[in-house]
Design a protein that fits this description.
It is built from 3 helices and 20 strands. By secondary structure, it is mostly beta strands. It has 2 domains: 108 residues, Sandwich (Protocatechuate 3,4-Dioxygenase, subunit A), CATH 2.60.130.10; 161 residues, no CATH class.
Length: 325
């Protein structure tokens, strides 16, 4: 083997070594973003503060900060191992955050070019204005999980959403906004075969719930107001059935929350004269012998506002809550 052949082999091996030694998810690859900030109507939001957080290692970040121009645009470019958070803030608005879908190339295709996309990626971010927050009575959540164990099984139990307590004889609630019945069955010869079912029925015929989409990209995840003309369903069903050996589930879909109307008073023609509105936040769980939900109740009759006096900043980051824009 002559010197020329040895040199060519060395160059080929060197090139292969470089290819094998580099990985975009370990060493990072370039990502260019054009972040476009708009309001609820799609109008550009100028002078919003943007932070594009590029993860350069599992516990290291590089933050690109700036403000949107008159067209609501801000550009960021950096190296990342495959995760970027975009945070947007402006006074008078709820904080917004998205996880952009910037990895348009596979790891295999990104390796030779050291880029996650061959060109700039557009990232839309929608900011929500702070309108007219009101006082909402907020109850429930993880802190009261153990307190909301069902006091009975196979019995109808009234629950007061405003007082957040069971009605007599199980508690001190004064008005049964809904009736709840919890049923549980398990096979004697097979511990894994069971049926856990909960049915909620609103007390008044014109009371009810409807589903709405939560917005995980905003510090205010909900609609500003309830929709009185919506179709309110009087019953809700939650169930986990393993009797067949194959589990089936029924409940509130992921990413949804419940808007309710309760304590409804109607005139002789069936028109609503008075009612109270509120919402039950997403991740409502009623199975397993206990009730876990967070309820926002508007104590003012006929006030449809769901916007409360809470923080205008996002809760601690939970990656599972987010979807790509």
């Amino acid at each position: 083997m002559n010197n020329t052949t040895l040199t060519v082999c060395a160059l080929v091996l060197g090139m292969l070594g470089c290819s094998w030694g580099y990985s975009p998810i370990i060493d990072g690859a370039t990502s260019e973003l054009e972040i476009r900030v708009v309001d609820d109507e799609g109008t550009p939001v100028a002078d919003a503060e943007v932070s594009a957080v590029y993860y350069t290692a599992p516990e290291k970040v590089e933050v690109h900060r700036g403000r949107t121009d008159t067209n609501g645009l801000f550009k960021a470019k950096g190296r990342t191992i495959g995760e970027i958070h975009v945070l947007v803030e402006k006074e008078g608005w709820y904080q917004g955050r998205v996880l952009p879908d910037f990895r348009l190339l596979s790891v295999e295709d990104a390796t030779p070019v050291h880029r996650w996309a061959m060109e700039e990626v557009s990232v839309p971010v929608r900011l929500k204005r702070i309108h007219s927050p009101t006082h909402l009575v907020v109850n429930g959540g993880k802190e009261t999980w153990r307190d909301m164990q069902y006091p009975a099984t196979n019995a109808v139990m009234g629950f007061d959403l405003l007082a957040y307590d069971w009605c007599p004889p199980f508690g001190k609630g004064e008005y049964a906004d809904f009736q709840i019945r919890a049923e549980f069955w398990r096979a004697e010869d097979d511990w894994f075969k069971y049926r856990d079912k909960v049915v909620i029925t609103m007390t008044n015929a014109m009371d009810g719930f409807y589903l709405a989409d939560a917005d995980p990209t905003s510090a205010f995840r909900y609609d500003y107001e309830a929709a009185p003309q919506a179709r309110f369903e009087r019953e809700l069903h939650f169930e986990c059935d393993r009797r067949s050996g194959v589990p089936t589930f029924r409940g509130v879909p992921r990413g949804k929350y419940l808007v309710f109307r309760t304590r409804t008073v109607a005139d002789s023609n069936g028109n609503v004269v008075s009612a109270h509105y509120g919402m039950i936040q997403e991740k409502m769980e009623l199975l397993g012998g206990m009730m876990h939900m967070r309820c926002n109740f508007n104590p003012l009759a006929n006030d449809v506002r769901l916007e409360g006096n809470w923080s205008y900043r996002l809760a601690p980051f939970n990656k599972e809550d987010y979807s790509t824009p």
